Structures are given as C-alpha cells and as structure tokens.
Amino acid sequence: MAESDFYTKDGTVDHKGNPANIKKTGTWKACPFIIGNECCERLAYYGMSSNLVRYFKHQLNQHTSVATRNNQNWSGTCYITPLIGAFLADAYLGRYWTIALFSIIYVFGMTLLAMSATVHGIKPRCYTEDNCDPTVTQSAVFFVALYLVALGTGGIKPCVSSYGADQFDDTNETEKKHKSSFFNWFYFSINIGALIASSVLVWVQDNVSWGWGFGIPAIAMAIAVVFFFSGTRLYRNQKPGGSPLTRLCQVVVASFRKCRVAVPADKSLLYETMDAESNIKGSRKVEHTEDLSFFDKAAVETESDDIKGTVNSWKLCTVTQVEELKAVIRLLPIWATGIIFAAVYSQMSNLFVLQGERMNTHVGNSTFKIPPASLSIFDTLSVIFWVPIYDRIIVPVTRKFTGHKNGLTQLQRMGIGLFISIFAMVVAAILELERLQEVRRHNYYEVKEMPMTIFWQVPQYFLIGCAEVFTLIGQLEFFYEQAPDAMRSFCSALQLTTIALGNYLSSLLVTIVTAITARNDKLGWIPDNLNYGHIHYFFFLLAVLSVLNLGAFLLIAKWYTYKKAVGTLR
C-alpha cells in the first residue's frame, strides 16, 4: 500500500508537524478528549458567569442597570477576544498551540478571580449578605481577573469546535457524515457543563460562599487543560496558512488595480496553481463561483503578470484566494442576523435572573430556595433533550422528505431557531405582565419575593434552549463548513462575535431605554425594584426586533451560494 494511503488528503499533521497517520489519529478516537475539555471549560465559564450579575449588584454594590451593563459588556468581550485567538491560530500557531497557550491564561484568570472573593484585603468588605462596600482596589482586582478570563477564553472558543471538526476528513464519505453529528454532541457537552454550573455552582455561590463558587470553576478549568493534553498523540492538526487578513487584502487590492480588465467568459482561464493543492498552506483548492464577479479580476492574467517567475500576490491572486474573500463576504449578512438572536439569548443571564429574584424561590412548601440564576438549568435541560431528538429523530425523518444528508440545510435549521426565539420573548413578556398584575392587586411593591413561583419562568428558558439547538449549533456547523480551510478559526470567531454584539446591543438598548424612560425623576422600565418597572416592554421590544430579523434572514438565505472545495463530497 502506498504511503499516501495512510494519511489524510487534506494535509493534516500531528502536534509536532509530522504527517498524521489516518489510522491512528482523528475521528471519534480523538474527540472524547476535545469534548471532555469543552465540557469542563464550559462548566468553569458558566460556573462563574451565570450568577455574575448578582455579584455585581450585591457584592460590588452596583445599581441594577449598571450591573446589567457591566455583565453584558464583559460577556460581549468574551466573544470579541476570539478574533485574537482565531488570527493567531490560522496565521501562526495552529489550533493546538493556541488552545494550549490561552488555557494557561484562562487558569490564571480563574485563580485570581477565586482569590478576589476569598483572600482578606482583596475580598469586598460586607456588613450583611447584601450590604457590601468594596474599595476601588478590590473592584479593580476583580475586573482584572474577569478580563483575564475573557482573554483566555478568546483563544479557546474559536478553536475547539473547529479543532474537533478537523478530526474528520472531508474526502472520506464515512468521516464526513460523522462531522455533522460531532457538532450536535459537542454542543451537548457544553450543556452538560452548563447543567452542573447552573445547578450546583450557583447554589454554592448563594448558600456557601463566593470563594468556593469561583474556586470550583478554577479547578474545573485546570481539569479541562489536563483533558486536552491527554489526547495530544491522537489529534490531527491543520497547518497554519499565514495571515488570512493579508490574503483578503491582496484580493481587494489586485481587483481594484485591474478594475478596467474584463473577466473572461471561460472561467478556466482564471489564474490557479497547477499543483493538486492550493498555494495556501493547509487549504484545498476551491471551485469558482459566479457571484461577486468583480473580485474575479484579481485572478485575471495580464501581460504585466510574470507567472513564470515569482508571482506578486498584490497584483495576481489564485481562484482559491479570490474564493476565500467571496466566502467571507457571503457569510457577513448571515452573521449579522445572529446579533438580534444573541441579544435575546443574553437575557437568560440578565433580566431573566433579576425577574426571578422578585418571585417566590422556594421549592414547594419546603425551606429550600432555588437561586434565580439556577433557572437556566431548564435551558440546559432543553438543549440536552433536543440534541438527541434532533440527531436521532428529526434528521432521519426530514432526510426522507428533503433528500439532504443532514435532513435540513444549515440555513433552514438556523431559521427555525430564530422563529422559536420570538416566542421565548413573548412568553417572558406575558409572564412579567401577569406578575405585575399580582403586585398591583395585592400591593407587593416592597415585598422582596412575591408569592408567584419562580417556576413560571421555565417555559421561556425551555424555548430559548430549543432555539439554541437549531440556531447556535446550526451556526457552528455553517461557519465551519462555509469557511475557507485556512480561515476556519477566524470564521468560527466571526460567528462568536454575534454573541458579543448581541450583548453589546442589549446593553445599548438598556442604556437607551433607561435614558428615555427614566427622565424627570421617573423610575423607567428597568428600576432597581422591578416591581415598579416595565421590563415586559423591553421583552416585547426584543420580540419585534426578532420578527424583523427573521424576515431579513429569510431574504438573505434565499440568495446564499454554498462553497464547494475541489475534491470534497457534497
């Protein structure tokens, strides 16, 4: 048997840069270590973030609107920093070393966070449970730790899902079929971690101490690092392809330099390397597409292009390089429609929690009280319920009707999730209307917890969980599949920035709404005591924006052109 038969056809290597043995590496043999790493990392992340808005409000003594903004700004940063990690992974380090290095930063940040809630001197001084007076230094240490975590997660988030998908060879029909299933089970593992975080760790924070509440996530992150390194010998690694931003700029510059050059009718005349592989490390050639034809000018050969010598990529680009830019441009409208969904999704760790604070948190007639942030467990349970249903029932059934190997296309899947998210906001708004009617009817304005049980929030969490399975998993797979080979971390980071911008958008909406509705000494929609507020208006606002967003998505999806790499299976 020829040596090439033992290796993947897409040029993957092991962690030392040697060709990866296809029989001994990758596939489901490597994935348990990646999935285990993600489960522990998400347990750490959600363990410290699920209840963070309450830490801001009660331990750092911040007003409701300030606590909400700080929480959403930090959450947004956690989904912006992946652009840094993605650039380093695609251009220089590769996904393996990027995950490894940023994990160390992550562990350091989590450790400092635990110390800021434990060590005397940097721990906020509290007179009672909800009456604290932190110094500027104490607040500063906490925020430094918090943003170290944001930096650390920036190297992991854009790489882990792509790294798992890298373990499956697109040129192998059996492996390619497993890749779609990987994304479902990868997201399943995220929610196992989130389940433990939103139940056990939130309870620890509310009933034991914040020190243990942040310390356990730090230990979980250390375990995540051990999981990752344990699978080192089994991983397949894509070679970094150099700076993707440089390549994109080269196509733009070359296109404008040749703006008056006509593109030949026969697209086979466009410039491409003669080799079987493209001239971009770690990337296969990509078939030419008809849309965005202006950029095809960058691949038109002219007399001034010395193709027999060293080609100047700022004057002449390959078809594959041009298609990289086209792929990114085509992704941007789809990417933009994820921002409103992310704003809806962010309410689980913000206004949903503060809404739950004002409801009866006792479980039945017992003295046990469920922390408001723990209601996110029903979002997690919803995901855990729907992932197997989708993978084992919905996909086979819809496949019979559509003929598509995955049952639904990635865009169809995402659209269904956007539709479901509208109902999540409507249900949350209706619940708040009912709650406020009870407040007025029985004069519960100054009551810390009104008699209405917090479990009325379950439907809104469950609906968001269902929407996640369709939209967020669909986005994970879509942005990986439609990304150029050498830009997969970058495009995964691009998908994550929708969550960042969704948090920032929600924060901006809170700021605008507060500025407009709290004029002339009015309390506004989102006061410190929500019994005097109108957060149902805010939920209805998000529902209206979601309807408009769905309409835009359907128009964009109708005209989308899917990427096709040379030699891959459809």
UniProtKB/TrEMBL annotation:
InterPro entries: MFS_trans_sf (IPR036259), POT_fam (IPR000109), PTR2_symporter_CS (IPR018456)
Any one Gene Ontology BP term: oligopeptide transport
Residues passing through the membrane, by range: 96-115, 185-204, 210-229, 331-353, 373-390, 411-431, 461-480, 492-517, 537-560
Record has Nuclease as a keyword: no
Top-level taxon: Eukaryota
Membrane-topology descriptor: Multi-pass membrane protein
Cellular component annotations (GO), alphabetically ordered: membrane
Record's keyword terms, sorted: Membrane, Transmembrane, Transmembrane helix, Transport
Compartments, record wording: Membrane
GO molecular function, one term: transmembrane transporter activity
Membership in a protein family: Belongs to the major facilitator superfamily. Proton-dependent oligopeptide transporter (POT/PTR) (TC 2.A.17) family.
Protein name in the entry: Protein NRT1/ PTR FAMILY 8.1-like
